[in-house]
Write a structure and sequence with these properties.
Elements lengths: L12 E5 L5 E5 L5 H8 L1 H10 L2 E6 L6 H9 L5 E4 L11 E4 L6 H11 L2 E4 L2 H6 L9 E5 L13
Parallel strand pairs: 3-4, 3-7, 5-6
Antiparallel strand pairs: 1-2, 5-7
Helix pairs in contact: 2-4
Length: 156
Amino acid sequence: INYVLDNSADGLLKTQIGEGGAYLLVPKAGDFADLEFLAKNIFSVGAIQGEDVVVMVQNGTNEAGLAKAATEELAPFGIRSELILQKAALTGDTLLYDFTNGAASATIQKLVDIFGATVATATAEQRALYDDPENKPELLLILGQDQVTPQQVTYN
């Protein structure tokens, strides 16, 4: 397993000019947490990258920005994701539709681990919705109400 650390748009590093004009690559996040995570999870990250699937993420809640936050959470794992801007029907549980018929098992397992998603086989109707060759997902993650952190209630 190998992983290239670079300053590309998806990379974990950024360019910085140090004292005396030295060209440096430093952690994009400002600390080493993402690099430590990669070192500890290199085998699962490598398996996921080998599958090279795209996960489309859709929000099935009324919580704005939830799908965008989820796509950002997937990036350190090497999971390529795209937002579906159209809101999904409201759902209580997070659902993961598999259009690969189980071929993306490492990615599926990581999504289950991260989001507690229930894996479902896509129905013929769902497959028809996403049958556009230009925009066909391999996995569809619909975030449910179980992903929303309850607001803390203050009593006076």
